[in-house]
Amino acid sequence: MLFDKQTYTSRRATLRDKVDSGLIILLGNNNAPCNYPANGYTFRQDSSFLYFTGQDRDTLALVIDADSGQEWLLGDDIDIEDIIWTGFVPSVADLAASCGVNNSAPFGKLAEMVADARKAGREIHFLPPYRHDHMILLSDMLGIHPLKTRSAASVKLIKAVVDMRSVKSDAEIEEIERAMAIGYKMHTAAMKHCKPGVTEKSIGGIMEGIAMSYGAKVSFSSIVSMHGEIFHGDPSLKPLEAGRLLLVDAGAETVNNYCSDNTRTIPISGKFTSKQRDIYSIVEACHDLVIEKARPDMKWLDMHLDVCRLMTDRLKDLGLMKGNTDDAVAAGAHAMFLQHGLGHMMGMDVHDMEGLGQIYVGFDDEVRPSTQFGTNCLRCGRRLQPGFVMTDEPGIYFIPALIDKWKGEGMHKEFLNYDAIEKYRDFGGIRLEDDILITPTGCRVLGADIIPYHPDDVEAFIS
Predict the structure, then answer these.
(1) pLDDT confidence of 1, banded at 50, 70, 90?
(2) Whether the Cβ atoms of residue 47 and residue 128 lie closer than 8 Å to each other
(3) Average pLDDT over residues 203-221
(4) What residues contact 206, with CB distance under 8 A and at least 6 apart?
(5) What is the per-residue DSSP string for 12-57?
(6) Distance separating alpha carbons of residues 200 and 239, to the nearest angstrom
(7) Strands in 152-270 per DSSP E
(8) What are phi and psi of 197, to 5 degrees?
(9) Does the structure show a pLDDT above 90 at 216?
(10) What's this model's pTM, rounded to 2 decimal places?
(11) Is the pLDDT assigned to residue 285 strictly greater than 90?
């Protein structure tokens, strides 16, 4: 366990108070087969289960009776057949005791407890399942179709978990800082190896190896691509080409399951062209605006729109946009260049708690999601609080298919200079991303060492 017993005991007590009544069920993850049963994916525990128990073993469940205060850790002890293959594993009773849970029982007791609660007409609280084995389990116990289990999840439990996990403790920040330190090594290695002829796959492999060498892993599938305009560009076997840019979006997850997430865009030839530097400097200014302005009680939606206005002003200076800036952003014309949101929460999940439903994680009764193209991809809009960890990741992208579509439809022609934009259709994309902690007075960039991102610093580092 990462934290002491009292941390988990206290978290569960707070959760019980917030939910108030009924039976709370938190399911740990099972092992998942890859291409045949005995060849599994690397095990990753469910983050909320980890948050309340600290237990990283597969096939466990936590049950909390919010009325009586009783708690159970459910799971089956392994036998000698398993020990031969996996080595010694503590008993479920020992695991329960280590995190302050007083009761333990075989996993099969879960169905019995749910049946008793249903018979008594009690509320049964569970989080939205994202794995089909959990959907089937809940379906069997609750008598609903597996595909309806997500919509049947407890909103009260979701809101309680989001409320607790959103604000990171000092100990959690320390663990995120450890992930940042690994991420720094990953990204600076990518910058050093970024040369014509080296493949995207090679750089991705070097980064993943660094993460693993520190007992960690990548926090998501690394994005390493000369096509920076493709948001989730998987690394290919294509050799890097002189004169182009390489976008690297990657992070580490510590052995204790806290994440980092950074993006850098690197000139493969070692120097930015004047055209590349012009666009890069706009993204750099937008990135730095967030560090300057983000603070408690500010709506993240407003921070996003501030970035969009700065970007629009600077693109007007280059002749790519025109007209009134406020009107252009209100109309969504800036989404020709920025089609995603400014950033997202980060913690135990690199997109923290996204599986619980973004409507609950990033929005509230005051701030609702936008339906406008581009801004509809903003994952968080609500007011910031001290202890929030957010990604700061503006970007500018030239997507040929989008250029052709909007130009053909005459979209936002009063704000977009399509003749000038055409000259950038093969440019690719630039994104810069760092992780910030909202403090009582503002924010700070996480990580003792900041991956070089100012253009002169980038060129000096890779030379």
Answers:
(1) confident
(2) no
(3) 96
(4) 189, 190, 193
(5) HHHHHHHH-SSEEEEEPPPP-EEEETTEEPPP---HHHHHHH----
(6) 7
(7) 217-218, 223-225, 245-250, 252-253, 262-267
(8) 95, -25
(9) no
(10) 0.96
(11) yes
Instruction: Return the closest-CA partner of residue 332 out of 358, 311, 318, 361.
Output: 311
- For residue 155 the two structure tokens come to 């909103």
Closest to 369 measured CA to CA, from 353, 382, 350, 352 = 382
With 90 as the cut, is the pLDDT of residue 330 above it?
A: yes
On whether the CB atoms of residues 422 and 372 are closer than 8 A, the answer is: no
Report the C-alpha gap between 129 and 138 in whole angstroms.
9
* Angstrom distance (rounded) from CA 14 to CA 12: 5
Pairing of strands 71-74, 223-225: unpaired
Q: Kindly list the domain boundaries of the chain, sorted by start residue.
A: 5-166, 170-462
Distance CA(216)–CA(259), nearest Å, equals 10
String of DSSP letters for 286-341: HHHHHHHH--TT-BHHHHHHHHHHHHHHHHHHTTSB-S-HHHHHHHTGGGGT--S-
- Domain 170-462 CATH assignment equals 3.90.230.10: yes
Residue 85 has pLDDT above 90, yes or no: no
Contact 95, 73 (CB under 8 A): yes
Report the CATH fold assignment for 5-166.
Answer: Creatine Amidinohydrolase; Chain A, domain 1 (3.40.350)
How many helices (H) does the chain have, and how many strands (E)? 16, 17
| C-beta contacts of 207-210 below 8 A and 24+ residues apart | 207/248, 207/250, 210/182, 210/185, 210/186, 210/252
Q: Are 204 and 235 in contact (CB under 8 A)?
A: yes
